[in-house]
Design a protein that fits this description.
The protein is an alpha/beta fold. Helices cover 36% and strands 17% of the residues. Strand 1, helix 2 and strand 2 form a beta-alpha-beta unit. The two termini are 35 Å apart.
């Protein structure tokens, strides 16, 4: 509860936390909107493949042009300005930098930048859940060996969920279920970048602002992003994925304790101790009352009759038995909250959630009948979506992770709805990301 005080002290001492942001899309832009208002933070540099777009975005965010005209990283470090360019490696390696924020959303780029951060011994805030789901346990181990903090991104749902899980366990509660809400119908698994805006209801004017990437937003709609985020939660907490993937039961805030309890107690869970995502829509498309489309939650169980009575005495909404209750947060502010991670990593040496083991995996599933010779186009595209499976089941299937299902050619036909397997694609085994993933599959305990 004293991060702001510590940031003020760093500002007063003339030693702001110097940050390097890699990737200035929607998440990065939201962080930048608040970073210049936060004492004790200095965005040393922003690396992006489109520097001109970054400067246009900064102008829209209200950054003075003079703040972002540093001709070099040395100049930015010397006079408190911000460098904008394409060279992420130079930014990571600069001696003045303390914290790297990886926000590209590209799994292979995320892995490359994470390894560079380890080599340079710079703390890493991994916004890139795609990279974390692909090889997070290996990256976290490399970071620990380098003596740096590897952290999930506060403001994104996995870190907020892990915070709730940590609260529950630190209070002595068993976690029955934890997760988030989203807008989901089964038909959305087949959504493509051509259909995404009509499902979301965004206007052409909103899309034209430049922050809206059709394939990225489609990954939220088709279930891939939910699978990735719940893999991160499972791998950071030890909670287990459902055996056949997320089920997206329709459920509002008031019904969490009743719906998300074990089937043996009348709920939908196969067992206690799982992750799940609830939908803001009923199967017929009508809205769920008091939905949690933007929220996160944790369901806990009373360990005794005394605690069950306390639930009732203090006004908690429970299931009919009074044994299960839930705490939830109705929203998340993604990049606007990311400064919490930066401050926690730099000032406390603590992550806001981190990957610990390989419990959940996100596998590529065909959206439509696929033919030999086709190129897969990855997360949110036209060919595959990501499904969360227990890691042991993914390994038994020889499933291709969604993070590697981009620009790889199919060797065989794959039926709609089938899991794509390693044996069905032509992968470059010398690729850095492929090698790290193979290391995970070979060595990580399941």
């Amino acid at each position: 509860m004293n991060l702001h005080t510590q940031l003020l002290a760093r500002a007063a001492a003339g030693r702001p936390v110097r940050i390097g942001l890699i990737g200035a899309g929607k998440f990065g832009s939201m962080f930048l909107a608040q970073a210049r208002r936060t004492p004790g933070l200095h965005v040393l540099g922003i690396a992006d493949l489109a520097p001109g777009r970054v400067r246009a975005s900064l102008a829209r965010l209200g950054w003075p042009a003079a703040q972002v005209d540093a001709p070099s990283l040395d100049a930015a470090a010397r006079d408190g300005r911000t460098w904008v360019g394409e060279d992420a490696a130079a930014l990571i390696a600069h001696p003045a930098l303390e914290v790297v924020i990886e926000a590209t959303g590209a799994p292979k780029a995320g892995i490359r930048h994470a390894l560079l951060a380890c080599a340079a011994r710079k703390h890493l805030v991994m916004v890139n859940v795609e990279a974390d789901a692909l090889a997070g346990p290996v990256l976290a181990r490399r970071a620990a060996e380098a003596g740096i903090v590897y952290s999930m991104a506060y403001g994104d749902q996995p870190a907020l969920i892990l915070e709730q899980i940590d609260w529950a366990r630190a209070c002595g509660f068993d976690v029955v279920c934890a997760g988030k809400g989203t807008k989901h119908l089964p038909a959305f698994h087949a959504s493509t970048p051509d259909t995404v805006w009509q499902h979301y209801g965004f206007s052409p004017q909103q899309v034209a602002t430049g922050d809206f990437n059709a394939q990225m937003f489609n990954s939220f709609l088709d279930g891939t992003k939910s699978a990735l985020e719940m893999a991160a939660v499972a791998n950071g907490s030890g909670l287990q994925p459902p055996p056949d993937g997320l089920t997206f039961p329709p459920c509002g805030a008031d019904d969490l304790p009743t719906v998300l309890r074990p089937a043996s107690a009348g709920g939908v869970l196969p067992q206690a101790g799982t992750v799940e995502v609830v939908s803001s829509l009923h199967p017929d498309g009508t809205p769920v009352a008091r939905d949690l489309r933007w929220g996160v939650f944790v369901v806990i169980e009373a360990p005794s009759e005394y605690v069950r009575d306390c639930f009732a005495q203090y006004g908690l909404r429970t299931d009919p038995s009074g044994c299960y209750t839930a705490l939830y947060r109705p929203c998340h502010l993604i990049g606007l909250e990311l400064g919490i991670s930066v401050a926690s990593v730099a000032l406390r040496g603590e992550p806001t959630g981190t990957t610990r083991a390989f419990h959940g995996d996100v596998v590529a599933v065909a959206k439509r009948p696929l033919r030999a010779g086709e190129l897969l186009d990855g997360e949110g595209g036209y060919t595959v979506y990501g499904r969360l499976l227990p890691a042991a089941r993914s390994l038994a299937l020889g499933a291709l992770p969604i993070g590697l299902a981009h620009r790889v050619k199919l060797r065989t036909d794959v039926a709609a709805g089938d899991v794509v397997r390693w044996s069905e694609v032509a992968c470059d085994e010398s690729d850095e990301a492929v090698r790290l993933r193979r290391e995970l599959e070979r060595d990580a305990p399941v």
